[in-house]
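**User:**
Make up any protein.

**Assistant:**
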Amino acid sequence: QLQLVQSGGGLVQPGGSLLLSCAASGDILDYYAIGWFRQVPGKEREGVSCISTIGSRPYYADSVKGRFTMSRDKTKKTVYLQMNSLKPEDTARYYCAAGGSMVTSSQSLCDGRTPGENWGQGTEVTVSS
């Protein structure tokens, strides 16, 4: 079974940057679409950015487009979320998740049509001065 272990996150001032990492083990990451999600207590979980095995470009939520960049290092079996120009409204608990199959689209995972089946442990991101 695929296991995902996250690292990164923390406290940063508005306008700052953070890098989140999600390392996979136990299964082949390329079998799944994978993405980053965030959740604030009392609000619905939001798909921030997702990438598919067959797609060429990641999907980004409008709220992060132009500021966040998702990438995948297949040799390290790790996906990253580089977060720049952070805003207080980016404060949330961030999760990586994998689901679907090799033909699942990135947007399908992010908007919930394809459920995430394997989840990382989550990491807090706080943007505050």
Observations:
- The chain has one helix and eleven strands.
- The chain has a mean pLDDT of 94.
- The CA atoms of residues 38 and 46 lie 5 Å apart.
